[in-house]
Amino acid sequence: MPHLRIALKILGILLTLFSGTLLLPLAVSWLYDDGVLVVFKDTFLLIFSVGVLLWIPFARDQTEMHIKDGFLVTFLFYLALGLVGALPFIQVTQIEITVADAIFESFSGLTTTGATVLTGLDQLPPSLLFYRQQLQWLGGMGIIVLAVAILPMLGIGGMQLYRAETPGPVKDSKLTPRIKQTALALWSIYIGLTAACAFGYWVAGMSLFDAICHSFSTVAIGGFSTHDASIGYFNSAAIESIAVVFMVLSGVNFGLHFFALNDRSFTHYFKDEEVVFYLSILGIAVITVTVILLLQSDREFIEALRASVFQVVSIFTTTGFVTEDFSTWPSLLPYVIFFGAFTGACAGSTGGGIKVMRVLLICKQGLRETYRLIHPNAIFPIKLNKRPVPNRIVEAIWGYFAIYVLAFLFMHLAMIACGLDFTSAFSAVGASINNLGPGLADVAAHYGDISDPAKLILCFAMILGRLEIFTLLVLFTPMFWRR
């Protein structure tokens, strides 16, 4: 049974830390004098107070933290942050949205989904736009991973949180001997990529404000924008090229970035089967989409290639930026592009989806079963990067996939019960559980027209996808609560 006292203590610390991030949009509001400074001031004071009140009663508690506590803290923190993160959206008078809308927008940002209920972004206060982008940036690598670099200083172990939050099927490996150093290494790379992306956008023609905001959502693979037209607002091949480069980089396992920088060698990328498979999927999809666009539309080759590269990379990595409405593209293209998000990005990246590594190992398992039909008595080990993969990992991946499909079907039916048509419901759940953002049909542009119960279901799907399903569902098992 998890220790509720240690969970509340850590939750209080994390909420207190998060309240400090509200000082940035507060500063932006003061700089632009956009009239919502008091909103962020009040929100900061409220979240800070709640955090301190949760921490003080258990400040002297020295209970050792276990893996169950890590799962509970991760869920409680995402739930609490999603709820308190909605406060600025509720208070800003320039937008008129329901509480469910505000919660949806908050969870969408925190989980880097990028689905939005807001329209007229170009007229919103700059500080609120900055806040949306910052939510995605903090959620990109996971605020928990940042916190484990600080919690050890307070006498609280962090490895349990790291296992619970870090995306990907293999969570026990650490880049450095100490979890604190691992978290700092990951965040150093994350901040470095963000700074480089912002600089590239600025050089390519974005304003400094837009460059910073879009770098947040690009490296986080989030997809929020400061404009209704997303990246299409700029109509710039240079900006789109920079976005493509950093979306691809952010979709790669950050552990590989660490080893590449540490050894000053790019060979790690090309020796990794997951990255090769990831790049191969993107390449094949780009070629396929480009050919179909050329055959079934009146586009020139360069125009078709430009549109294809950007939308394939954006959707396949689950970023969700758009330059045009791909749902209106001819033939099967909208479905080809949308289904690419189910594979998603690499394990250990900021992207969503099932993850490339899981898909790769499922394919290898399928080939192994085919070989066994031909040679029933032969032994065919599944290998990844020339190393045998333990059967328990393959079994875990199939278990994950089975639960993923079941959860998807139940939520799809629930969305249909809320009044959505089949395609809209399917794409809304797919876009949410894969942390993608844009869907098809009625949710291609935004999610503002669906009912409040449907939005709350999608919030659950977002958390389910962000926490890789088991981290959340384990809380609903009787065994978790037994001593």
Automatic annotation (TrEMBL):
Tagged with keyword Membrane: yes
Listed transmembrane segments: 12-32, 38-58, 70-90, 137-162, 183-202, 237-260, 275-295, 335-354, 396-417, 455-481
Residues where K(+) binds: T112, T113, I221, G222, T318, T319, N435, L436
Keyword Transmembrane helix: yes
Subcellular location: Cell inner membrane
One CC-aspect GO term: plasma membrane
Record-linked InterPro entries: Cat_transpt (IPR003445), TrkH (IPR004772)
Pfam family, one: TrkH
Keywords noted in UniProt: Cell inner membrane, Cell membrane, Ion transport, Membrane, Metal-binding, Potassium, Potassium transport, Transmembrane, Transmembrane helix, Transport
Membrane-topology annotation of the record: Multi-pass membrane protein
GO molecular function annotation: metal ion binding; potassium:chloride symporter activity
Family membership: Belongs to the TrkH potassium transport family.
Function: Low-affinity potassium transport system. Interacts with Trk system potassium uptake protein TrkA.
Protein name (database record): Trk system potassium uptake protein
Organism: OM182 bacterium MED-G24
